[in-house]
Amino acid sequence: LSERLGGVFDRLTKQGALSEDDVRTALREVRVALLEADVSLPVARNFVKRVQDKATGAAVTKSVTPGQQVVKIVHDELIRTLAGDDPEPGKLRIDQVPAPILMVGLQGSGKTTTTAKLARRLTERDKKRVLMASLDTNRPAAMEQLQILGRQIGVDTLPIVPGETPVQIARRAKTQASLGGYDVYMLDTAGRLHIDAELIAQAAEVRDVANPRETLLVVDGLTGQDAVNVATEFDDKIGVTGVVLTRMDGDGRGGAALSMREVTGKPIKFVGLGEKMDALETFEPERIAGRILGMGDIVALVEKAQQTLEAEQAERMMKRFQKGQFNMNDLKSQLEQMMEMGGMESMMSMMPGMGKAAKQMADAGMDDSILRRQIALINSMTKTERANPQLLQASRKKRIAAGAGLEVSELNKLLKMQRQMGDMMKKLGKGGMLKRAMSGMF
Ligand code: GDP
Ligand code: MG
């Protein structure tokens, strides 16, 4: 994709804002790339539409090309879509004892392997006692497969009783998990090559017996578009709480992940990256996004774009300071940067001519808790007040201080600091000192 976009954007030399035409040309390529990565057509279409809305009219920064900028917008939107609203991808609901986890999916998707990998993770990372049970009565070897894996990773499996139905095994697993003091029990169901009524009916029956806290759908990440149909079907009929994408170590391009997220809205929890028991990782949207874009250097590119945006912001800020414009928003971003950069003293000592002031502040007991209080005060101001601190009279001051849970005297100190820093910035600006000072800061 990067080469393709490079070609398109070599022809675009315009500066200013991204025009609709620029964006449309670029997005045609993005759409093709998505389809090549196995993203389904409607999903690719929707995605491109969203990017188009975001990209059109976006300001072009000076030192990145429009192409890089569109790539960044595409990249960010990919991550946003992939991540969805799942705050913690690797986290499972195992908040009841014993917590049932039901594993569903087509035959060969990697259910049994993933069951064992996940059991190992729950045992080792989360210190849970786990019981695994195979409900795969179709293939006699399937139960043994889980048993062997269990032995290998040191996780208990439910003893095999020949002749039982999946529902009977599920009941026994539940009882055994309660009696045996297990935190979690995992039910590894049988799969078919295709979804059929019997498979669904069986899974639904097991679900009703176990009442799983998580129903994880295991999908082969190499199957692309097909995976989405499978996911939709399973979710409609059985109800899925999360997805595990397997074979992401293969050369599939990750498009299934995007389609899956967009169509089913289900969080992708984990990815399988090999046959070994430790080849399971928490789903990371950034990695899949890079893969869909098909470029190794995408991250570097995006970072460069980001840095450039920040540098330009800094430059804009400096121009305002030189004109003596320094309001509470400016002060707030300075204070926040100080926090990030290791506190006030180290910050001030980096600015020419500020060594003495830094020492005075340190002597006066100005430390990071003060920074935090100052930021709280600014947060307590309205937008208008932040832009025009001269508006702050007694009643406003009272309200702001109360909002931050602090004294008005502290707010007065903050106001004095804002005025002094504004004056200082202006003076430094005249002598060209500001530029040097700020190049150390950003
Ligand atoms: P099930 O029929 O859904 O239970 O699938 P299995 O767990 O038996 O897996 C089928 C095959 O896929 C086995 O050979 C596994 O080793 C392999 N497999 C499972 N997950 C992965 C994965 O993430 N990467 C790779 N390369 N192979 C996997
Ligand atoms: Mg199996």
Automatic annotation (TrEMBL):
<dbReference type="GO" id="GO:0005525">
    <property type="term" value="F:GTP binding"/>
</dbReference>
<dbReference type="GO" id="GO:0003924">
    <property type="term" value="F:GTPase activity"/>
</dbReference>
<comment type="function">
    <text>Involved in targeting and insertion of nascent membrane proteins into the cytoplasmic membrane. Binds to the hydrophobic signal sequence of the ribosome-nascent chain (RNC) as it emerges from the ribosomes. The SRP-RNC complex is then targeted to the cytoplasmic membrane where it interacts with the SRP receptor FtsY. Interaction with FtsY leads to the transfer of the RNC complex to the Sec translocase for insertion into the membrane, the hydrolysis of GTP by both Ffh and FtsY, and the dissociation of the SRP-FtsY complex into the individual components.</text>
</comment>
<keyword id="KW-0687">Ribonucleoprotein</keyword>
<dbReference type="Pfam" id="PF02978">
    <property type="entry name" value="SRP_SPB"/>
</dbReference>
<comment type="subunit">
    <text>Part of the signal recognition particle protein translocation system, which is composed of SRP and FtsY. SRP is a ribonucleoprotein composed of Ffh and a 4.5S RNA molecule.</text>
</comment>
<keyword id="KW-0963">Cytoplasm</keyword>
<comment type="similarity">
    <text>Belongs to the GTP-binding SRP family. SRP54 subfamily.</text>
</comment>
<feature type="domain" description="SRP54-type proteins GTP-binding">
    <location>
        <begin position="267"/>
        <end position="280"/>
    </location>
</feature>
<dbReference type="Pfam" id="PF00448">
    <property type="entry name" value="SRP54"/>
</dbReference>
<dbReference type="InterPro" id="IPR004125">
    <property type="entry name" value="Signal_recog_particle_SRP54_M"/>
</dbReference>
<keyword id="KW-0547">Nucleotide-binding</keyword>
<dbReference type="InterPro" id="IPR042101">
    <property type="entry name" value="SRP54_N_sf"/>
</dbReference>
<keyword id="KW-0342">GTP-binding</keyword>
<dbReference type="GO" id="GO:0048500">
    <property type="term" value="C:signal recognition particle"/>
</dbReference>
<dbReference type="InterPro" id="IPR000897">
    <property type="entry name" value="SRP54_GTPase_dom"/>
</dbReference>
<feature type="binding site">
    <location>
        <begin position="246"/>
        <end position="249"/>
    </location>
    <ligand>
        <name>GTP</name>
    </ligand>
</feature>
<keyword id="KW-0378">Hydrolase</keyword>
<dbReference type="InterPro" id="IPR004780">
    <property type="entry name" value="SRP"/>
</dbReference>
<feature type="binding site">
    <location>
        <begin position="188"/>
        <end position="192"/>
    </location>
    <ligand>
        <name>GTP</name>
    </ligand>
</feature>
<dbReference type="GO" id="GO:0008312">
    <property type="term" value="F:7S RNA binding"/>
</dbReference>
<dbReference type="Pfam" id="PF02881">
    <property type="entry name" value="SRP54_N"/>
</dbReference>
<keyword id="KW-0694">RNA-binding</keyword>
<dbReference type="InterPro" id="IPR036891">
    <property type="entry name" value="Signal_recog_part_SRP54_M_sf"/>
</dbReference>
<feature type="binding site">
    <location>
        <begin position="105"/>
        <end position="112"/>
    </location>
    <ligand>
        <name>GTP</name>
    </ligand>
</feature>
<dbReference type="InterPro" id="IPR003593">
    <property type="entry name" value="AAA+_ATPase"/>
</dbReference>
<keyword id="KW-0733">Signal recognition particle</keyword>
<dbReference type="InterPro" id="IPR027417">
    <property type="entry name" value="P-loop_NTPase"/>
</dbReference>
<dbReference type="InterPro" id="IPR013822">
    <property type="entry name" value="Signal_recog_particl_SRP54_hlx"/>
</dbReference>
<dbReference type="GO" id="GO:0006614">
    <property type="term" value="P:SRP-dependent cotranslational protein targeting to membrane"/>
</dbReference>
<dbReference type="InterPro" id="IPR022941">
    <property type="entry name" value="SRP54"/>
</dbReference>
<protein>
    <recommendedName>
        <fullName>Signal recognition particle protein</fullName>
        <ecNumber>3.6.5.4</ecNumber>
    </recommendedName>
</protein>
<dbReference type="GO" id="GO:0005886">
    <property type="term" value="C:plasma membrane"/>
</dbReference>
